[in-house]
Amino acid sequence: MKLITAIIQPHRLEEVKKALYEAYVNLITVSEVLGHGRQKGVDEFYRGSKETGNLLRKIRLDIAVNEDFVDRTIKAIIKGARTGKIGDGKIFVLDLPRCIRIRTGDEGSTAIG
């Protein structure tokens, strides 16, 4: 099991979700976050307004997947998030040693789905 965390541009969320759904990846957690990478201080546009500063609005996706879904999840995120410009984001893949579904008590790959 893996936990895939992606940081993407807010305006690319719908495209990423569409690509994930096409790859049969349906279980995602989405959070609004602030941060910056190499582009610190670069102007960005969010919902039509220009923002400048050290901390830029980003979207964080957390997706727990079984091993056979790792590559297709990464490819879908890249497909939906890539613009070719600085600030497209990052993807982190972490080992997920344990997962428990609260409702049923299922553990491991069964809990992920």
What this model shows, in words?
The structure is a single chain. With 113 residues, the protein is an alpha+beta fold. 23% of the residues lie in helices and 33% in strands. The protein has one domain (2-112): Alpha-Beta Plaits, CATH 3.30.70. It has helices spanning 13-22, 70-81, 109-112, and strands spanning 2-8, 29-35, 44-46, 49-51, 56-65, 89-95. A hairpin with a 2-residue loop joins strand 3 (44-46) and strand 4 (49-51). The radius of gyration is 15 Å and the shape is elongated. The N and C termini lie close together (11 Å). The mean pLDDT is 90.
Identify the CATH architecture. Answer: 2-Layer Sandwich
**Largest sheet descriptor:** 4 strands, antiparallel
Write down the secondary-structure element order: EHEEEEHEH
Report the total helices: 3
Task: Report the radius of gyration as a whole number of Å.
Answer: 15 Å
The order of strands across the largest sheet is 2-5-1-6
Domain module tally: 1
* Percentage of β-strand residues: 25-35%
